[in-house]
């Protein structure tokens, strides 16, 4: 009798267990059915079917792989993608940014505009794929590759980097990108080569040639470059009205200077005497440089011994001569920095100062007797 009772109780237990589980299964089915309905309702609003939605979800999860909660990473991926789509509508192609940057520089000097135009066009010619790239998505790596592909020498790349940075700077101001990628492009530091300075004998020949050639029309310009450190392009734009012999100063306007900043240059006695001689020759108004100045300046150098073949004239040689003799004689880099229009004295130390062969005596002669030309100096000695 006990065995049937046990069997009956076991059967009743199993029936009860199965009934309760079946109820749970039915409840789960109802929940799943409700979730399906909710999901289908969401999909209906998007216009996607179940397969398309599953494919998108799969791609999203694949794209958001990484450490951390995959759900949170997927949501972050969606947010960033949305921002990128909005940003794409607020940017322009690189070519458009180049044109806008060029337009923004119409008030600059012609030489500055020409350099900017040449470099930007070269960048586009050697990297045509950059033309249609939205500026917001151009990376520092792309900028570096473009510079290296477009220019061969390190000095050219440094100059082109400034232009490229200017293009992106304009783009940032216009709201076309949030930051300047060129700021993250590092180029090897330029190794500045020492530029030779004139000896006293070379200065004697140059000043003698300036005084005799073309009736002394080039004398004032040569003196301003040699004794005031004014750049060749700056002296070419200089007018006699900017030279005040009574106050002993030369006023360089912002639009005339290379860096775009106005500055005052001191006329020291040696330069004052030379300018007075030029005035006595009848040069008192108009441009400091005579007509056809580039050709006459080349010819003057040739007459002084720089034929361009056996003996070449380095760029800015007179400016370097001025800086080196000034530092040796006056020993004041701060004043020299102001006179030359530099924002700091770093460039003076790395590029301009060449004391080789300059003694206290030769520096004193430079600032005292060199203006007397060939009558005072013989073979570089007073």
UniProtKB/TrEMBL annotation:
SUPFAM superfamilies: DNA breaking-rejoining enzymes. Gene3D superfamilies: 1.10.150.130, Intergrase catalytic core. It comes from the Bacteria. GO terms for molecular function: DNA binding. PROSITE patterns: TYR_RECOMBINASE (PS51898). Residues 193-366 form the Tyr recombinase domain. Keywords: DNA integration, DNA recombination, DNA-binding. Belongs to the 'phage' integrase family. This is Integrase family protein. It comes from Akkermansia muciniphila (strain ATCC BAA-835 / DSM 22959 / JCM 33894 / BCRC 81048 / CCUG 64013 / CIP 107961 / Muc).
């Amino acid at each position: 009798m006990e065995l049937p009772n046990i069997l009956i109780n076991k059967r009743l237990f199993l029936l009860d267990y199965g009934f309760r589980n079946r109820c749970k299964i039915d409840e789960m089915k109802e929940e799943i059915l409700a979730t399906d309905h909710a999901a289908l309702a969401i999909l209906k609003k998007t216009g996607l079917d179940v397969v398309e939605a599953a494919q998108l979800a799969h791609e999203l999860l694949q794209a958001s792989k990484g450490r951390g909660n995959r759900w949170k990473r997927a949501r972050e991926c969606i947010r960033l993608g949305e921002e990128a789509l909005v940003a794409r509508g607020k940017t322009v192609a690189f070519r458009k940014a180049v044109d806008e940057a060029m337009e923004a520089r119409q008030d600059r000097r012609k030489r500055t505009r020409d350099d900017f135009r040449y470099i930007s066009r070269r960048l586009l010619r050697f990297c045509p794929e950059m033309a249609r790239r939205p500026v917001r998505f151009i990376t520092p790596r792309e900028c570096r590759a473009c510079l290296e592909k477009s220019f061969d020498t390190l000095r050219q790349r440094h100059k082109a980097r400034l232009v490229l940075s200017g293009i992106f700077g304009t783009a940032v101001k216009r709201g076309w990108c949030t930051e300047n990628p060129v700021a993250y492009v590092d180029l090897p530091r330029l190794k500045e080569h020492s530029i030779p300075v004139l000896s006293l004998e070379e200065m004697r020949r140059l000043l003698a040639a300036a005084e005799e050639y073309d009736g002394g029309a080039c004398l004032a310009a040569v003196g301003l470059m040699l004794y005031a450190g004014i750049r060749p392009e700056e002296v070419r734009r200089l007018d006699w009205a900017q030279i005040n012999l009574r106050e002993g100063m030369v006023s360089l306007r912002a639009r005339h200077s290379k860096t775009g900043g106005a500055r005052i240059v001191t006329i020291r006695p040696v330069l004052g005497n030379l300018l007075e001689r030029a005035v006595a020759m009848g040069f008192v108004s108009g441009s400091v440089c005579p007509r056809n100045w580039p050709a006459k300046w080349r010819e003057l150098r040739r007459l002084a011994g720089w034929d361009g073949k056996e003996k070449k004239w380095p760029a800015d040689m007179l400016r370097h001569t001025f800086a080196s003799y000034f530092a040796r004689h006056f020993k004041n880099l701060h004043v020299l920095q102001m006179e030359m229009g530099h924002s700091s004295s770093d460039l003076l130390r790395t590029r301009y100062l060449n004391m080789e062969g300059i003694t206290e005596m030769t520096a004193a002669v430079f600032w005292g007797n060199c203006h007397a030309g060939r009558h005072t100096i013989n073979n570089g000695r007073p």
